Fold this sequence. Notes:
There is one protein chain. This protein has an 8-stranded antiparallel β-barrel. The protein is mostly beta strands. The protein folds into 2 domains: 23-124, Lipocalin (Beta Barrel), CATH 2.40.128; 141-491, 7 Propeller (Methylamine Dehydrogenase, Chain H), CATH 2.130.10.10. The chain has no helices and 42 strands. The two termini are 42 Å apart. It is globular, with a radius of gyration of 24 Å.
Amino acid sequence: xxxxxxxxxxxxxxxxxxxxxxxxxxxxxxxxxxxxxxxxxxxxxxxxxxxxxxxxxxxxxxxxxxxxxxxxxxxxxxxxxxxxxxxxxxxxxxxxxxxxxxxxxxxxxxxxxxxxxxxxxxxxxxxxxxxxxxxxxxxxxxxxxxxxxxxxxxxxxxxxxxxxxxxxxxxxxxxxxxxxxxxxxxxxxxxxxxxxxxxxxxxxxxxxxxxxxxxxxxxxxxxxxxxxxxxxxxxxxxxxxxxxxxxxxxxxxxxxxxxxxxxxxxxxxxxxxxxxxxxxxxxxxxxxxxxxxxxxxxxxxxxxxxxxxxxxxxxxxxxxxxxxxxxxxxxxxxxxxxxxxxxxxxxxxxxxxxxxxxxxxxxxxxxxxxxxxxxxxxxxxxxxxxxxxxxxxxxxxxxxxxxxxxxxxxxxxxxxxxxxxxxxxxxxxxxxxxxxxxxxxxxxxxxxxxxxxxxxxxxxxxxxxxxxxxxxxxxxxxxxxxxxxxxxxxxx
Length: 492
């Protein structure tokens, strides 16, 4: 699936085939315009700024503002005037002047809003710019720190008195949760981007070398390996040709006598847990980045083709497929007969397990939903967002928003929670079009009031930093891994 240009990244400019208008014809178009977008019972302001291109006579530079994601005057392209029409990026976006000449009419372009063509009516005016001051919150006590030297992209896992963490150098470590002391470490042949699974005294973790590795949970000794795909996984960094932002990998799942795996190459497979002989395999043909989830006699998994699939557990036959329209890269949450999962269509979907039909959807303005949903099974679910930079609490039955909090950065991990609190880590990029910051947050689970925040320092170089994976919450301590290779244990 071709990568879509998001609001902030839509700066690749196609050559304009049309002839530019004389400079005196640009005057009525220049300046600030504002509109209101409406969808799904919600609305958000949207701004447009047109100015004469300083390097290309007769052409316009196009900038947009979206306060809901803290974007102000982000350049998205070049435009020419053709009669009563403004043609942006060689026709990717077209606005027409109203008959009275005081409004600009059109709809949202694909490079800003995938799948939807929301009507736009621009009138003269500038959006009031709102600042985003950092909140004044207490910081939690850091119980211990451990430097692991390689970036920690993957989810953490804690059990008993041990914390398990995989890094981008292919090392899996077991540490003492009380002190941070290293108990053992084991090496694989590729980066570790998935959460380890502890089962029957073994720690199972897929590696970018294309294999599922099993280690003795007590000693770290290698028990066995299972090849999941023929070639090692290649993840193309953002900004390079072919990049897909495929940051994470699917963890393994064990259900009874079955071991379930989902590969970057697009194969969902069931194996005998003890002998590791194949029971069935389904080649979907699109990367599977979310962990397979078993509910009843179904296996649920989302794919990079945008489809959420329900597969029969014992046969491997597809029961139904629901198309979200854009890649699904997170793990499905099941509650109340619904499968709840996010999509890069800017939406969170709830799909009925019985027949694969939509129960509800929740729109996230200008933001992929990369975070996996989490909950306690009490009707409240929690999910992060990408450019939206917020953590939301929703009603699992109907998608009604209970509360939402600005967390100031990409909240890609699955929220960690207990009866009292919900916590999440965020990441940022210094050179990004939105002024994000990285931090670790805790909120009251029911009301959404912030409890504390631990800001993470930005590096001097423009690179990703902060927390991308899921936190681990155990025994009054919250554990986080950062892209600077640091593990943190916080007293919560």
